[in-house]
Amino acid sequence: MTDWPTFLAALTLALVRVSGMVLFAPFFSSTALPLRAKAVFVGVVAFLLAPLVSTVPQAHAQLGFAALLGELAVGLVYGLSLTLLNEMLLFAGQIAGVQFSFSLVNLLDPSSSIQTPLLGDLFQLFGTLVLITAGLDRVLLASMVRSFRVAPLGAFAFTRLTALAIFRAGAGVFFAAVELAAPVLAATLLVEIAVALLGKLSPQLPVMSLTVPMKTLTGFFILIAALALWPHFIEARFASLLDLAERLISISPAAPHAGLGG
Questions:
Q1: Could you tell me which residue, 207 or 17, shows the higher pLDDT?
Q2: pTM attached to this predicted model
Q3: Helix 160-201 crosses helix 207-226 at what angle (to 10 degrees)?
Q4: Which residue of 34, 86, 173, 177 has the fewest C-beta atoms within 10 A of its own C-beta?
Q5: Dihedral pair phi/psi, residue 76, rounded to 5°
Q6: pLDDT higher at 40 or 109
Q7: Distance of CA 21 to the CA centre of its chain
Q8: Helix residue ranges, H only, the chain
Q9: pLDDT tens per residue across span 223-253
């Protein structure tokens, strides 16, 4: 590429977009990855993509405040849409933690630097493991490259409809989390009902000392049995969020409604 001003402009715009994606996207946003490694990765990807994305039809490889703001918006829309997967797993862990009587057992989440429930961190680790073993990190990279065709450089404009679509997808986090924790919820509820009936039949039975261990053991058993369904569930939610992100950054999105609950 001999046009150096165009190349440097395309490199800068691609760098801004890829940085926004890596900042929030699952797996890549993990604090377990060194910050310098992320910076090198973003720089290498932007350098390799710059000659290609600058030649895409409707691409405007020219530096400007509007172009930089648009590329930053693309990266943030992409990353924030996909980070809803982590929020779904965290909320599902909170629901399961309450049923396991672990509501007061908290850990310091390294990704957000706040206190999070123990099972919330465990669910997020399981989700990251599924992403890696299923190769969804490579799918995310391919979609990131494809985003330059969906929304060419300098052609994206953040609209009110895009913000509303992200809020709707965020509302689906709660429904998806309840779906994921539903087996544990149902099993622990049946245990509570059974213990309550036993308490009515035998008032001398120490109901309070039996409820917590029975709920915890039953919940763990059901959780282990339900792990076989996790890969399909997480892959389906990841695919729906990825499709949502691609439609949100398209130049003329067609009223997206998909999300975690879809």
A1: 17
A2: 0.73
A3: 130
A4: 34
A5: -70, -40
A6: 40
A7: 12
A8: 4-24, 35-53, 65-99, 118-133, 136-150, 160-201, 207-226, 230-248
A9: 888 888 888 888 888 888 888 888 888 754 4
